[in-house]
Amino acid sequence: MTRFFPIFLAPVLLAIILLCADTLHAAEQRVPVAREQVTLTFAPVVKKATPAVVNIYTRKLVQNQTPLLLDDPFFRRFFGDGLGGFQRERVQNSLGSGVIVRASGVVITNNHVAGDADQITVVLSDRREFEAKIIGKDEHSDLAVLQLQGVKEPLPWLDLANSDDSEVGDLVLAIGNPFGVGQTVTSGIVSGLARTGVGASDLQSFIQTDAAINPGNSGGALITSDGRLIGINTAIFSRTGGNIGIGFAIPSNMARTVLTSILKEGHAVRAWLGASGKTITADLAKSLALNRPSGVVIDRVVPHGPAAGAGLAVGDIVRTVNGREVHDIEELRYTIASLPIGGQAAIGTLRQGAERNLQLPLAAPPDLPARKKTQLSGRQPFAGAIAANLNPALADELSMEYVEPGVILIEVAPRSIAQNVGLQPGDVILNVNDKPIKTVDDLVQVLSVQAQGWVFTVNRGGQTLPFRISG
User: Fold this and answer.
1) Is residue 396 annotated as a catalytic residue, yes or no?
2) Tens digits of residue pLDDT in 86-118
3) 448 backbone φψ class: left, alpha, beta (φ>0; ψ -120 to 50)
């Protein structure tokens, strides 16, 4: 049976609906009755962390070419600084940030902030000032460790947390001194992990964040929402020099490794893999019958190195380190280098479709055979260069892939015969006049024999270059 709605009740029903809507809207807009309902702040975390973050001011004397015409701005306007003249010293000032990581006044910052400074002044958040000395630096990770002078009482400090606990989406705070305006705190999230290809240092696996990082923030702290130090701010991606929401921080695990070794050894010491490999691309994954491109396929294993000791072999695919996935060769190198020496790392591999777990010993690259640095002289094409036996430790210092022993040129004097010939630091000498060169002694012996001409081959950045010099 059809039911009819009495039309005279429509206004009443409409009034009821509007009243209910108003009631619901009022409930949604209810005025807070407790402080907790309106207060959401990082202030307690900031108050705890900021006293340990410092401003760093550096001074460095640099040599400038002073024009002969009394450095007159009128002439510089038309001729620039290329007028010739004499050398003049100029003071170059710069600024950055740092983090106190020991109550005794040990500060960690970026190497590009303080690594080559002649004078360093550190200013705390309470305006106390200290002179600082560099006790160690590491160009490959872009980190430097300073010691404040004249510390008479324990200073506020932050402990380095485990950066492997960080996840994309975590809230983070960046603390530093952007543009020299004074200590500043910005907030954001972790927007990426294990970022490589940034170019800020040789060892790369950065934490990416959208917390505002600007010039002057370098060396400052990246902390979690509960106050844990997970990174040292180091670089930004920008076309203008200002923040566009893409900043990078060195993970605290790498900072801890560098800090510990510098305090103990006086220089940075990192674990090495003792193998080289290639990042698995989409094409390589297809040829290896993998379901996705991830990991590193090993193409060389150094005899008697850590990888060889763990049982790693050519063709093995490294997928994880200590349970964390490895995406590319840069991340693999970085992960091993950030682990403390003396223990072991669990390496998850794939060999012919079978999963295997290996235990990689974490050891420093050995300084063997002895480097035997030798100045080369005489009437031969290497005169003016310094050669050394290439070993794992030297290769690590030079950020090179170590494969086997050889002889490397570590210095080439300006305007020397070696430079005029076209030789460069980093060239690895393969052979001279059909004689293979394995040691510095081999090279010295070959060069001591008078020759009508010279034919030799060097490896430069993976490329084999032939040279032919007439007598």
Assistant:
1) no
2) 556 666 677 889 999 999 999 999 999 988 888
3) alpha
